[in-house]
Structures are given as structure tokens and as C-alpha cells.
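Re: the 294-residue chain
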Amino acid sequence: MAESHDQNLHEKGPGDSRAPFQAFLHGGISSLVSALPALVVFPVYKTIFRQQLHNTPVHLAVAQLYKEGPVKLYRGVVPPLLMRTLNGTLLFGLQENLLHQLSLSSQNALSASARSALAGFGAGIVEAMVFTPFERVQNVLQNGQNDHHVPTMKSVLVRLRSEKLAIGFYRAFLPITARNALGSSLYFGLKGPVVAVLKGQGVPPMISSFISGAVTSMAISLALYPLSVLVANMQAQVGPREGKGVIACWRMLWTSRQRSVALLYRGGSLVILRSCITWGITNAIYESQQKPSG
């Protein structure tokens, strides 16, 4: 897939930037469509978050949400919906444009997959810069312990705005940047070769794109899940604990998980399942939109 995409770029010539900028639109549409089911599965996501934060089995996390009642079940749903849609627009658009520039400048110095991965890495860094505040607000809202002193999104925004950026809106920026940059690099670098293998086995293009997105996201989620747990624990608190650094927070998290990898990955199976479905759909829709313009 990456190889055929590079060929399209060279056929258009360096002056034709129409297709790379269409990636912003296509990325936004595909992410919006795949984000709509998030309204249905948001309780599952919130269950995962409670497992990450409180190190509880799934039945206890569900019991927590049940006790809080249906009114608070969807507390915190707005930031991830906005973030998911805008994220796809920015991530796919930036990656496509960075790839376009790399394809023109690097000649044959890098393979197509390496260029895609490098462009994804750069897009992931920008993604972290833009969306860390969204994730911060989302995690504060989803933590039931914050209900009394920051009960609404407005109160959360006011509280975070009163803090320095490093402990306010940009809390956990470094682990988010590492997670997003590595995840985007792996996603864009691997999905093309996976599609090529599947097409070689006679799998239809749409199904190949879905499987490629699902399998790639599964591997990424599995590898980077500890960073997501660290981010959730760093960002969910507002108060004295929020000033601790990344290393101190990691040590606290590792100790709270009894130095057990199994406990660190609690809730990971649900994350992987959700990631497989959403990124499978996103990739399939995005690729189907790109082909007519390619």
C-alpha cells in the first residue's frame, strides 16, 4: 500500500498538493464515522479507565459506575468524541503531507515503509501538542473522586487554567508524546505491508484495510498500554499529587500494582478490543476515500 501511494505522489508531481490536503478531510470523515459507536461503548471505556486508575477487577469497576447512577455514566464523553474526530483530521492530514515532503526530498534513501513511519512519528508529536489538554480534561471528568470539587466541565477548565501548564492542561505531556509518536509511527509504518500481504492472499481491498488497521492497532495497544495507564493516573488527579514528575508517578504506579505486569495490564483486553474495532473501521473508510483521489 505504501509503495503504490508513493507512486501516486510522484505521478502528480511536486506542485500538486491537492491529494495530501484531501487527507485532512478524509481523515476527519473516517474518524467521525468510527467515533459514532463511541457513544454506545463509552461505558466500556469508562470501565477501563476506572480499572487503570483504581486497579480494580472489571466487576468492581462496573459496580462503581452502577452506584454513581446513569446521570454520571456519560460524564466526560464530550472530550473524547471531539478529540477522536479532530484527531483523525490532524493525524492523517499531517502524516500525508509530511510523507509527501519526505517522498520528494529523500529520493531512494529511505524505503516507503520507513518514510511512512517517520511521517507518522512527526504527526504523533504534533498530535500530542494539540490534544493533551483534551485528554487531561477527559481524565479529570471521568475520575469519580473529583465529582465534589470539580463537578462540571466548566469547573474543570477553570481549575486547570489557574495552574501552570505543566501541571494543568499539559500534565503528562511527555508520556503522551512518547505514546502518540511511537504509536503513530508503528501504525503508518506497518499497515501498508500488512495490506500488501493480505492482498497477496486474495483478500478484498476493503477487508484488507480493516484487518490491517485492526491488527496493527492491536499490536500497538498491547505494546504501549502501560503508557496509557501512566497517563490516566497522572492526569486524573487535581490536587497535591498532581505536581509529581513522570518518574515519581511511574514508581508509585508500579508499587501500587504490586510490581506485577499482569496487574499493570488490567483492563488491557478491553482497550485492545475497542482499538481493533475503531481503527479497523477508520482505516477501511480512509483507504476507500483515498483511492478515488489517488
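The radius of gyration is 20 Å.
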